[in-house]
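Here is a typical protein record:
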Amino acid sequence: MKANFWCKLALSGLISIVSSGQAWSHPEIFSDLSLEQAKQEAAKNNKFLLIDFTASWCPPCRRMEASTWTNATVQDWIKANAVAIQIDVDKDEKTSAALHVEAMPTMVLFKPQDRSTEFGRQVGYMDSSELLQWLEGIKSGKSDQEIAKEANSSNGNEVFEHVTKAQNLQAEGKNDEACEEYLWIWNNVSSNAPNIGQIRTGLVPNELKRLALTSPTVRTKCGALRDAAEKNNNRNDWIILNGILNENVRTLAWFDKAKLDPNLRTELQKQSTLIEPVLCSEARWNDIVTYLYPDPIAKLNEYFKRAQEMKKPSADTEVSKTFDPFPTMVMTIYAAYIGAGKNVDAQKIASECMRLDDSADMKDSLNRIETIMKTVRTTPAKPAK
């Protein structure tokens, strides 16, 4: 239970372990067919096979279920063009692992002519217009990368060309050549670049990690990048590359040194977002509360201000009226203080959360995390070094 829970938590900062306390059931547009039955039905009717990988604890999934999947135009498109099913990653770990699903929601689409090889994939929340743009693009024969390039035509075209080439090379089994394309992005794109920065910090590390599992060449090149990052004191890239190489033990060793060195405290705080999931995976609650969140109330208020900004629509983004990221942003702090046995402080955190956001979602989230942590604490936490 402990490892599975914190693995979910570490998958992303925006995908949380908590959600509304209401009973979960999939929207009516999704068939109750099994995966094999859905394949047969899609083949029989020459339709796409659309799989939505989801989880009951995933707020972005629930947002899609409340708005995107209930949109009439989306439902009409699916009825006319696809057989759609949902797969709960906790109930079907075999299929989720086989399709390399690492974050929820993940939508995978198979072409009518070939249901053994996926044709398109989207990870993360999509509103109805975004989903329809993707589905219509796929129907017209465009790849994910071509659709993304159209949506971001003002910049980043060269980056998407490298992504497309890399994925084509992977499909051909030319993994070392694909690595070169991903490394071009790693070396030429800033993590803070508008529209394309997340490709460097999200897609590229995920793909390099997959390639490094089977390719000694990829491991060697990523190892060289990791060593260069350490030499240049680029701690951010160094931590990410440790994760790609499955060598988070190096990150933990650096953390144990940094937490005792006042000269490194600023850098430690700067890298807290990357360090947090590593500490969570080791159940090091005392370290989390002592060195990442020593002033939890101040951090809660910082997150609240950030959440309010996230809720504001921009020129090209429509925000759902029900979208409230704050309950999902504060749960790690609350969980860590419970895990560390700091119950008085945990209660203060819960009270401050309710003061800032007295919604039913916040109350349910706090109750959910408290219940989960009681289960997690049945396994003794690892002591801080």
Notes: The two ends are 24 Å apart (CA to CA). Confidence is low (pLDDT under 50) at residues 1-24, 315-319.
